[in-house]
């Protein structure tokens, strides 16, 4: 497919992007020097020749260069191919760093000029002010709000921790280089850059063994010291400043699935949950220890020169610090005591020790609130004795961090499939001689039986019985959750998510499991009984989304359930799955069914909130790719149906998107700011009128047509499964050590059993990106062509254009689809077709994919009026134009190496080297596309 053309204002763009071009050239030159030094001139010359041919073919459309490039790549030895793949993969990584730096640079430039960027707090507060909203109203909204990005580990995370650490250092050096004035300083920084690029070249990109859950935990936690623990307090400080002193409740909190998500992952257990919580607690506490130590060094004030509060003097007196050098320094003595208590807390909660001790650890804090109270004593004393400026830089951000992160750092969700819960319930009932075959009961009988069990204060477990391994493991998870809440606080674990929720009994089963583990005390009709964990349904498939409202209505109709929920915090999280619904019905239908389900749920909960105060919080299971709900978060939140946000939103952050969003601290804060800004706008600036019925009717019609076209290809075309397994690197992805979770739920090749994540990842790798658009072009073309007259066809098109202008849902959906088409490349995808054994069937299927790509592109042009892809996003268009020449060799070599690997044309060490080359190419393509997970 053609590369996006240069935008009309290209000259102005070129001028402001000169620093970006300079950074890319600098990093490219350094990488080239390192390759020449490490691999020799011949290797460097080969890579440079490939680069020039690829640029000639891609940017200059030189057919001769394309043919020469093809011949050259096919004739490389395995060793040469791997060297080339490494070079272009690392270039993609370095280009990402340069682009990230440029985003920060441009944002700083606009901030200096007073420009307000869409998606920023400044822009949102301007809009709120224009609508007459006062600071007190905004603060009151935030008091009730809950915004939570949830980090998850899935089989698309291709980054190693060592690589991430080296890249963070390169990013820091690029920022330092921007600030450096002296040529000598810039030269010194370039020397350090050369060292870090050398480190990267000599560090393997891939893991030698399968990634463990412990590795995933460590990877996720690496973003906290640099980004979340430091940047989230800054975000709160900005909010407080904009709200003119109105206090801001800690509404923005982090969430995790890692260690608690056992859906289809046999490697997650009670032990991994305990490990995750211990590591999270250690991360938070070590950060606090460092900050308290630094604070003690800063607060050197002497009582010979300044007074302190009696409370601070008492805190200092309890520190057991008898060093005479600090006798007149009460702040230091107080903080030494705080440090000692924190060190004792670290040892009690995690079993690890602090690095330094002025006095021995003693008397651990019982809770984060106790620690926060001691910090407040220090703050109040400073404020009362002319020391308030000393609190601004470190103490106040530390206090906010403790408010937000506590001793638990992030809320860990439990997740398991409903059928696995059912197995446990069946065994418990059978052993208790209540029901010999629970699974055979119909739904009404299951609900009736579970209701009786929940109204009985007794547990089902027989203490003397040896339950099966599965039941013991599942119950152990809930028991570990109970213990974790006692150790780290109630915020450590708040949710039990049920994958494949299809019935009311799926929800009741989790209440029974909570009762068995002591997370639900007594019978549910006991006025004192509460559920510790919110039972969260996950509606994933098209059918599940359509049944969501009926299931929730039936759940609240069960006697005792609604009162129990109201006593337990009056919060109901409902998770919506973007991935499986997409794999089930295609991109447009998935989004439409999500929209319909959200609208129906909002209507169900409106009277429940009005009459009982029950809050609905939607949890969006979004992935990196557009087909899995990816795309800009700001637009996605604003595109939610009216009445579905209300200050409440959780959303997953997955795969390499986590690194893209949060590895750079400044970009991380901007992404978090975007979530807050969008939530405020969606809550406080709702649309003035309802979505016209005509819009909804057309969307429903397009959805059915789109789903029919999608399913006709994916589920009804003979040979499609063989095509998918042949023309994408799905088999090689399954072998790659990039996640602790298997790629498929079952040992089959059925598309239905394949996880949606590797499904989307595979299509992105081969550049066809089918899950992000297929079916929409056919739907639009069919609906327009079925118009009874030319006039009616024109009317229908005008309606589509109006829907795009006025309806954020459709505008965001088409914008994301536009990005998918721009990032896909069917000329490259055609190369993968050669890998399918049934060439005749493969050509037919690829022709259908290509035809639908063209129909979708035409539909976008008709509806939006834009003849070029990414006409409204010139920065992304520029990025793609510069990246594609460096991605092309990776894709071409991936095809060639997959051909050799599948044919077993090499054996032994050479075969393993071919496999390594494929996996390196997967890493490089993922880095180049950035949101392929």
UniProtKB/TrEMBL annotation:
<keyword id="KW-0670">Pyruvate</keyword>
<keyword id="KW-0456">Lyase</keyword>
<dbReference type="GO" id="GO:0015977">
    <property type="term" value="P:carbon fixation"/>
</dbReference>
<dbReference type="GO" id="GO:0000287">
    <property type="term" value="F:magnesium ion binding"/>
</dbReference>
<feature type="coiled-coil region">
    <location>
        <begin position="163"/>
        <end position="190"/>
    </location>
</feature>
<keyword id="KW-0120">Carbon dioxide fixation</keyword>
<dbReference type="InterPro" id="IPR033129">
    <property type="entry name" value="PEPCASE_His_AS"/>
</dbReference>
<dbReference type="GO" id="GO:0008964">
    <property type="term" value="F:phosphoenolpyruvate carboxylase activity"/>
</dbReference>
<keyword id="KW-0460">Magnesium</keyword>
<comment type="function">
    <text>Forms oxaloacetate, a four-carbon dicarboxylic acid source for the tricarboxylic acid cycle.</text>
</comment>
<protein>
    <recommendedName>
        <fullName>Phosphoenolpyruvate carboxylase</fullName>
        <ecNumber>4.1.1.31</ecNumber>
    </recommendedName>
</protein>
<dbReference type="GO" id="GO:0006099">
    <property type="term" value="P:tricarboxylic acid cycle"/>
</dbReference>
<feature type="active site">
    <location>
        <position position="583"/>
    </location>
</feature>
<keyword id="KW-0175">Coiled coil</keyword>
<feature type="active site">
    <location>
        <position position="154"/>
    </location>
</feature>
<dbReference type="InterPro" id="IPR021135">
    <property type="entry name" value="PEP_COase"/>
</dbReference>
<dbReference type="InterPro" id="IPR015813">
    <property type="entry name" value="Pyrv/PenolPyrv_kinase-like_dom"/>
</dbReference>
<dbReference type="GO" id="GO:0005829">
    <property type="term" value="C:cytosol"/>
</dbReference>
<dbReference type="GO" id="GO:0006107">
    <property type="term" value="P:oxaloacetate metabolic process"/>
</dbReference>
<dbReference type="InterPro" id="IPR018129">
    <property type="entry name" value="PEP_COase_Lys_AS"/>
</dbReference>
<comment type="similarity">
    <text>Belongs to the PEPCase type 1 family.</text>
</comment>
<dbReference type="InterPro" id="IPR022805">
    <property type="entry name" value="PEP_COase_bac/pln-type"/>
</dbReference>
<dbReference type="Pfam" id="PF00311">
    <property type="entry name" value="PEPcase"/>
</dbReference>
<comment type="subunit">
    <text>Homotetramer.</text>
</comment>
């Amino acid at each position: 497919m053609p590369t996006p053309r240069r935008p009309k204002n290209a000259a102005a763009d070129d001028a402001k992007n000169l620093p970006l071009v300079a950074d890319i050239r600098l990093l490219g030159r350094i990488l080239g020097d390192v390759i020449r030094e490490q691999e020799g001139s011949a290797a460097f010359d080969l890579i440079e020749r490939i680069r020039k041919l690829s640029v000639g073919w891609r940017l200059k459309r030189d057919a001769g260069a394309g043919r020469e490039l093809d011949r050259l790549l096919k004739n490389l030895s395995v060793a040469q191919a791997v060297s080339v793949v490494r070079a272009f993969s690392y270039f993609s990584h370095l280009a990402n760093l340069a682009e990230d730096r440029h985003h920060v640079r441009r944002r700083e430039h606009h901030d200096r000029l007073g420009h307000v960027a869409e998606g920023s707090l400044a822009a949102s507060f301007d809009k709120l002010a224009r609508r007459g909203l006062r600071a007190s109203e905004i603060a009151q909204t935030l008091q009730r709000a809950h915004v939570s990005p949830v980090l998850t580990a899935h089989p698309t995370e291709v980054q190693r921790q060592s690589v991430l650490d080296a890249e963070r250092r390169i990013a820091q050096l690029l920022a330092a280089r921007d600030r450096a004035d002296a040529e000598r300083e810039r030269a010194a920084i370039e020397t350090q850059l050369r060292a870090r690029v050398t480190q990267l070249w000599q560090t393997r990109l891939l893991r030698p063994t399968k990634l463990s859950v412990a590795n995933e935990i460590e990877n996720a936690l690496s973003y906290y010291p640099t980004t979340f623990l430091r940047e989230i307090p800054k975000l709160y400080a900005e909010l407080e400043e904009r709200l003119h002193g109105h206090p801001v409740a800690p509404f923005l909190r982090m969430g995790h699935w890692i260690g608690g998500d056992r859906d289809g992952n046999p490697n997650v257990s009670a032990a991994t949950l305990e490990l995750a919580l211990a590591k999270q607690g250690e991360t938070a506490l070590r950060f606090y220890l460092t900050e308290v130590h630094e604070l003690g060094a800063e607060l050197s004030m002497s009582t010979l020169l300044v007074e302190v509060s009696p409370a601070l003097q008492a805190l200092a007196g309890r520190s057991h610090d008898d060093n005479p050098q600090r006798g007149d320094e009460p702040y230091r003595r107080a903080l030494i005591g705080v440090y000692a208590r924190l060190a004792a807390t670290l040892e009690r909660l995690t079993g690890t020790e602090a690095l330094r001790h002025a006095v021995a650890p003693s008397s651990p804090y019982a809770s984060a609130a106790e620690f926060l109270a001691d910090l407040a004593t220090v703050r109040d004393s400073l404020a009362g004795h002319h020391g308030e400026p000393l609190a601004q830089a470190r103490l106040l951000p530390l206090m906010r961090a403790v408010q937000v992160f506590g001793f638990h750092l992030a809320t860990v969700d439990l997740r398991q499939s409903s059928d696995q819960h059912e197995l446990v319930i069946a065994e418990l009932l059978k052993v208790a001689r209540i029901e010999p075959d629970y699974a055979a009961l119909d739904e009404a009988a299951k609900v009736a039986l579970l209701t009786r069990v929940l109204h009985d204060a007794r547990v089902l477990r027989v203490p003397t019985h040896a339950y099966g391994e599965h039941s013991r493991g599942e119950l152990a998870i809930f028991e570990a959750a109970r213990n974790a809440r006692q150790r780290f606080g109630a915020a450590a674990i708040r949710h039990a998510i049920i994958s494949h929720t299809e019935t009311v009994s799926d929800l009741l089963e989790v209440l029974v499991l909570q009762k068995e583990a002591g997370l639900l005390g007594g019978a549910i009709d006991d006025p004192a009984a509460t559920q510790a964990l919110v039972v969260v349904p996950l509606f994933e498939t098209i059918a599940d989304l359509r049944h969501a409202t009926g299931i929730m209505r039936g759940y609240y109709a069960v006697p005792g359930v609604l009162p129990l929920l109201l006593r337990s915090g009056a919060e109901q999280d409902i998770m919506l799955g973007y991935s499986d619904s997409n794999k089930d019905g295609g991109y447009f239908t998935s989004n439409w069914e999500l929209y319909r389900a959200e609208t129906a749920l909002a209507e169900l909960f409106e009277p429940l909130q009005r009459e009982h105060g029950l809050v609905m919080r939607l949890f969006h299971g979004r992935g990196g790719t557009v087909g899995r709900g990816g795309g800009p978060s700001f637009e996605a939140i604003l595109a939610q149906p009216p009445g579905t946000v209300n200050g409440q939103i959780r959303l997953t952050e997955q795969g390499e998107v986590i690194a893209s969003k949060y590895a750079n601290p400044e970009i991380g804060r901007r992404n978090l700011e975007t979530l807050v800004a969008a939530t405020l706008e969606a809550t406080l600036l709702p649309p003035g009128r309802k979505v016209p019925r005509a819009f909804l009717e057309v969307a429903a019609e397009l959805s059915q047509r789109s789903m029919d076209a999608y399913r006709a290809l994916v589920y009804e075309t003979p040979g499609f499964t063989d095509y998918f397994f042949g023309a994408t690197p799905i088999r090689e992805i399954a072998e790659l050590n990039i996640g602790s979770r298997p790629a498929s739920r079952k040992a089959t090749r059925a598309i239905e059993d394949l996880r949606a994540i590797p499904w989307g990842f595979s299509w992105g790798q081969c550049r066809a990106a089918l899950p992000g658009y297929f079916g929409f072009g056919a739907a639009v073309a069919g609906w327009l062509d079925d118009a009874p007259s030319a006039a009616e066809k024109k009317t229908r098109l005008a309606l589509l254009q109006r829907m795009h202008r006025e309806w954020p849902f459709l505008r965001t959906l088409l914008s994301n689809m536009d990005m998918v088409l721009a990032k896909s490349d069917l000329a490259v995808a055609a190369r993968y077709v050669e890998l399918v054994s049934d060439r005749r069937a493969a050509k037919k299927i690829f022709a259908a994919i290509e035809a639908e790509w063209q129909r979708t592109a035409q539909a976008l042009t008709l509806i939006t009026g834009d003849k070029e892809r990414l006409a409204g996003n010139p920065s992304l268009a520029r990025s793609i134009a510069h990246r594609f020449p460096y991605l092309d060799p990776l894709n071409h070599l991936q095809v060639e190496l997959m051909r050799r690997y599948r044919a077993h044309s090499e054996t032994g060490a050479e075969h393993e080297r071919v496999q390594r080359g494929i996996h390196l190419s997967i890493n490089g393509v993922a880095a180049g596309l950035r949101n392929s997970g």
